[in-house]
Fold this sequence. Notes:
Blueprint: E1 4-7, E2 12-15, E3 22-27, H1 38-56, E4 60-65, H2 82-90, H3 94-111, H4 127-139, E5 143-145, E6 151-153, E7 192-197, E8 213-215, H5 217-228, E9 233-239, H6 243-258, E10 263-269, E11 272-274, E12 277-278, H7 289-294, H8 300-307, E13 315-317, H9 319-338, H10 349-356, H11 361-373, H12 379-393, H13 408-422, H14 426-438, E14 441-446, E15 449-454
Parallel strand pairs: 3-4, 3-9, 9-10, 11-13
Antiparallel strand pairs: 1-2, 5-6, 6-7, 7-8, 11-12, 14-15
Helix pairs in contact: 1-12, 2-3, 4-5, 5-6, 8-9, 9-12, 10-11, 13-14
Amino acid sequence: MTLAIYDTASREVKKIQSQSGVTSMYCCGPTVYRDAHLGNLRTFLLSDLIRRVIEVTGGEVRLIQNITDVGHMSVDVIGEDKLLAQAAAEDKDPFEIARTYEAKFHKDLELLNVKKADGYPRASETIDLMIAMINDLILKEFAYIGNDGSVYFDSKAFVSYGDLSGNRLEALKPGHRYEYSDESGKKFHADWALWKIAGERTEMIWDSPWGYGFPGWHIECSAMSMQLLQNHVNIHVGGIDLRFPHHENERAQSNAATETETVDLWVHGEHLLFEGRKMSKSSGNVVLLSDVVSRGLDPLSARLCFLENRYRSQMDLTWSALEIADAQLGKWRRKTALWGTSTELKVDPEFLEAIENDLDTPRALQRLRLIEKSQEISDSDKRAFFIYADKTLGLDLSRVVLMRDISKDQQDMLNERSVARSEKRWADSDALRLALENSGLAIKDGASGQEWSWR
Ligand SMILES: [Zn+2]
């Protein structure tokens, strides 16, 4: 089997294709003027999950994720450049702000066990690429210079505009989702700026054939993905809120420039709610990974919570779910350690089938719990299944650090007691239990065998 994922454009679950064995992936990255919240991180974990599934089944992935450090205009604060506004608020140079939040973004990814992308291109360092693409679009008559001097994409020239999001040009009303408040130079209300003339602006501007200015946000992702992934993207990942207009516009630009369908699969992760409310700056409901850590919870408990829900269903994260996930991680790591030290991997076909079927992680985790509790599967096989599963889940289940606290004697007694129980030598088992309890452990015998914790 190969991985199949729901494609927003065709509204079907489609199998992943790749060119010459390498799957090209592009994931829209952060705008680095503030911390990424857990909702943003859920999307970045989605691209990591896809990548891991492809790699664990023998594929190779080339993943590019952009860093938006040329402030793109906010949808909720019309006309305000996010980066410049934050720079003014913190009384810092805008690039200093960008580097600070970019470093924090990388730190978050590291804490979440996200594998590094093959490239994190910065918008500010790829201006030339964007200018070249805009030039090309003008030559091909998909873009024009407006009477205000800015360059706009001519949405009517791109006939399949709306195919991705379902938003047809004729249905788009004037005034809908403008990204800039001063776009008087465009011919049609659904057109968007590719290059904005500087006007009064003096910071974060670059020279171009159309004078000093700065690029629009959408052109950034087209220019980077086409250049760094050789004009074709097998899997394009982003949050559902980017489907329109960002991805619709990106598709128009990339397809128009290359005269091909540039993306095979558009994958969108759903919104995250926290304690019942949408997580967004505008609704004042924002939780950061650092908030999770400062509560003493393992950052990977957020990763586990996300896996307990399908990527394309809206989920409601709560503090209590994070606490339960934190305890679950500890339990699984202790068990994996108790099951031995082998590094052998074993593929469980049902686990793999669930994961490859549009990333059905809730079912995959259910399968893992069945393996954990099975009376038929040996401890060493359980460990081998868990270690294989963890290659896709990324939960660091073979972490041994938590076992350091147990002495060699305690470990030996636990192992002996496990054997005694399986051989129904109850007197030996009781004696070992007493010895373990005297050494400071609490022992609980459940359906899945003995479990211990510190008393
Ligand atoms: Zn993007």
